[in-house]
């Protein structure tokens, strides 16, 4: 009789990560492997294991049972590793070119072993340095069109979709978004972080009841509308980019939510770049990315829609309705992201790394004003051109 | 060592139902019990077990592994018994007076043992005979206000709510609604059933693309909007009524969906009564029920809302927004129910029992026209009075 050994969670080390890779036959037994931990250690360990002989390398990502934020540490479900591995696998099956391959995952150890993307750079870092990623927005538009359409009711049998809804139930990570994106920045909450010079703008936001009413509606949508499997945290820090290649990583916030949420988060993070770039051609480059993201999303989604066999997708006006709703949601979520990244707990390097204080504060004020306008005016901003007009 | 005996599903009989009740100590061992099967045998067995000594009685409801509809039989998940027992228990905890007590449930046997309500009558049957139920609409309004509010994000911690969403995932029974309420009646589907005299009206519906676009939007809402735990099948056949008592039964279709769905189904089933009643005071009685249902729902929901601790519920206009959205949804779902009960697979006795063919056809045409109008005009029908105006 075989003895079943129960595996329990333990943190990997350089040594045990190498052993694991060998045990799983991810390398030839004879290969000499090197391993380094390359994560930021806040939420996960990230080990890169490479063979000097073959040049082959892999990434082992292990979730830590806590999150470190501003020096504090709070417990955080390891189940996010299961969700991340499953989301990567599912998203890769829908947009193969744009998602890293998963070689192995283990729920007990909370690990995902995947393709090494070290030849690419995190898009946020690259954009901040002025790198040009010609295919970034086309690729993200395609990723969104494919992953959002094919996980929606327009594509899936309802049994399959409802199975995914259960599988990707993600209460703990959703709660982070519910608090940090939709609630805390709009109230005088301890988690907020902003410089003194923004005090007046921030107090105005907190007192802005019509704004808070619209944020309440957007939060309601985030809480209740299970339209498609979202990435859930699609900012430019969750994207590896290169000259001809884009890969979307870190979908541990994945869950069934409103289609516009991923779009809004990505566009807001492009907008931070548009705001801090003063030279016209450099700003222009970002504006084109914004435009392309929506346009490619829309055309990809529409193309798949046209191939759908669902009887209602044949009804004139239905696709337009879905796109129009998703666009308004996108603009609203984008507004929330602009505000929370400026005054909430989790900031962006794009703004915070601006050394000149006067400029930095000005950029932040621009983001706050634009965020507010997008939330309030989302049903009157009817096209991506309307949005671009506000950025010039 | 105790031997664990695995229970497997088997159909209860008169004898085994009595044994089970005794084994569970629901009666004194000495009592003489009688048992009769009182269900319609389409989806469930319903045994009524009574003691001649104490007068005590109970109901054992057992789900059958198939559904019989118009002579055909198709497999149907036994999991619905789990959902029904859980929904009854949860709804009773929120509206104790209006839901029968569950004494015991068993997932393996797919049974729910509950309070016997034989002293009451199914509301549809009673209304068809002209019975007067003074508290029916007030009670249902209260049931809806309490069960919908307290299972929503406005009342629950998000972890609890997301737990319920998973627990009440109900793909198979939702699919029945998706098909029979939102799809089949609007297409030339084999499941439809209507009399020859309605042929022209029905063909007009099938050709009515603006109508089908609005139904698509309502179906989208049913598929994606997890606002609250719905009863899911709240017609007058799911309600036991008496002069001073109302009990809501049969929540096997329970799942997280849009708040307006239960409201719409109940109101539509009242409307069938309003349509077939020609004498003014008798019609008037139903119109008051319609008005009271919404008014009591609205005041109950609002009262609970005012006690909520969620920061956003304090924002002026948010409750009004939620009620306005729910009202428009209610009117739309009501329209779908009016149409599907007239020409779809599952009819209502209210209409079908009208002997005079000319009148019956006229009533059905009225229901189809009203259903269509409600679906198309749901955003312009702004109050329950606007709806009543269409029924006079």
TrEMBL record, chains A, B:
It holds the Pfam family APH. It catalyses: 5-(methylsulfanyl)-D-ribose + ATP = 5-(methylsulfanyl)-alpha-D-ribose 1-phosphate + ADP + H(+). Its EC number is 2.7.1.100. It comes from the Bacteria. Residues 35-272 form the Aminoglycoside phosphotransferase domain. GO terms for biological process: L-methionine salvage from methylthioadenosine. InterPro entries: Aminoglycoside_PTrfase (IPR002575), Kinase-like_dom_sf (IPR011009), Methylthioribose_kinase (IPR009212). One of its GO terms (molecular function) is ATP binding. Keywords: Amino-acid biosynthesis, ATP-binding, Kinase, Methionine biosynthesis, Nucleotide-binding, Transferase. Signal peptide: none annotated. Pathway: Amino-acid biosynthesis; L-methionine biosynthesis via salvage pathway; S-methyl-5-thio-alpha-D-ribose 1-phosphate from S-methyl-5'-thioadenosine (hydrolase route): step 2/2. ATP binds at residues 44, 61, 115-117, 250-252. Catalyzes the phosphorylation of methylthioribose into methylthioribose-1-phosphate. Homodimer. Belongs to the methylthioribose kinase family. This is Methylthioribose kinase. The lineage of its organism: Bacteria, Bacillati, Bacillota, Bacilli, Bacillales. The gene is mtnK.
């Amino acid at each position: 009789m075989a003895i079943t050994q129960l595996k329990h969670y333990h943190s990997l080390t350089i040594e045990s990560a190498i052993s694991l890779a060998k045990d799983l036959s991810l390398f030839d037994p004879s290969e000499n492997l090197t391993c380094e931990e390359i994560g930021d250690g806040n939420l996960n360990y990230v080990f890169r294991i490479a063979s000097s002989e073959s040049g082959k390398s892999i990434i082992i990502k292990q979730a830590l049972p806590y999150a470190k934020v501003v020096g504090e540490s709070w417990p955080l479900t390891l189940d996010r590793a299961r969700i991340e591995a499953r989301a990567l696998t599912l998203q890769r099956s829908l947009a193969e070119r744009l998602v890293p391959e998963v070689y192995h995952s283990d729920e007990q150890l909370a690990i995902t072993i995947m393709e090494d993307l070290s030849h690419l750079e995190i898009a946020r870092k690259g954009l901040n340095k002025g790198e040009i990623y010609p295919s970034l927005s086309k690729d993200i538009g395609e990723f969104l069109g494919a992953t959002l359409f094919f996980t929606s009711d327009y594509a899936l049998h309802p049994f399959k979709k409802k199975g995914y809804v259960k599988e990707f139930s993600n209460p703990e990570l959703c709660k982070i978004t519910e608090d940090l994106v939709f609630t805390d920045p709009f109230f005088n909450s301890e988690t907020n972080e902003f410089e003194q010079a923004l005090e007046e703008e921030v107090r105005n936001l907190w007192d802005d009841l019509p704004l808070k009413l619209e944020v309440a509606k957007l939060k309601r949508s985030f809480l209740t509308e299970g339209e498609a499997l979202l990435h859930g945290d699609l900012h430019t820090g969750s994207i590896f980019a290169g000259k001809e290649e884009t890969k979307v990583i870190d979908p541990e916030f994945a869950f069934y939510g409103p289609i516009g949420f991923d779009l809004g988060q990505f566009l807001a993070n492009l907008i931070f770049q548009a705001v801090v770039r003063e030279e016209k051609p450099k700003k222009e480059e970002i504006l084109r990315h914004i435009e392309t993201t929506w346009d490619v999303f829309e055309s990809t989604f529409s193309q798949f829609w046209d191939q759908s066999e669902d009887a209602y997708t044949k009804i004139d006006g239905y696709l337009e309705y879905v796109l129009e709703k998703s666009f308004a949601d996108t603009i609203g979520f984008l507004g929330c992201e602009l505000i929370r990244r400026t005054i909430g707990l989790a900031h962006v390097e794009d703004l915070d790394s601006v050394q000149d204080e006067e400029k930095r504060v000005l950029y932040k004020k621009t983001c706050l004003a634009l965020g507010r306008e997008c939330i309030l005016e989302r049903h009157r901003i009817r096209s991506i051109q309307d949005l671009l007009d506000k950025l010039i």
